[in-house]
Amino acid sequence: MNFIRWLFAPTEKEMCEEMDVYSILVQLEERIEKLELENIELTNALYESENRLQAQIDNIHPVVYNLQDFTLDK
Q1: How many CB atoms lie within 10 A of CB 55?
Q2: pLDDT of residue 44
Q3: Domain ranges in the chain?
């Protein structure tokens, strides 16, 4: 809710040639592209870490007990 109020609040800065809406939009689009690339890189790094961890888990062999000759009779 506070974000919406902030978003639609009147600005106290004067609009000049350097702060036109189009240039701000272009800057935001460039920032979005950069963040999307970083997100892809982060996702790939997480998948790589997950695969390495899963491989290490798969390499752990459980203890196998030889119970073929075990009987309850004495």
Answers
A1: 9
A2: 96
A3: 20-52
For residue 59, give the amino acid letter.
N
The residue assigned the tokens 């870490």 is 49
**pLDDT means per 10 residues in the chain (74 residues)?**
73 64 88 95 96 89 71 68
pTM comes to 0.51
The torsion angles phi and psi of 66, rounded to 5 degrees, stand at -90, 100
| Helix boundaries (H) for 1-74 | 2-8, 21-59
Q: How far is CA 66 from CA 7, 63, 69, 73, in A?
A: 70, 10, 8, 17
Between CA 47 and CA 53 the distance in angstroms is 10
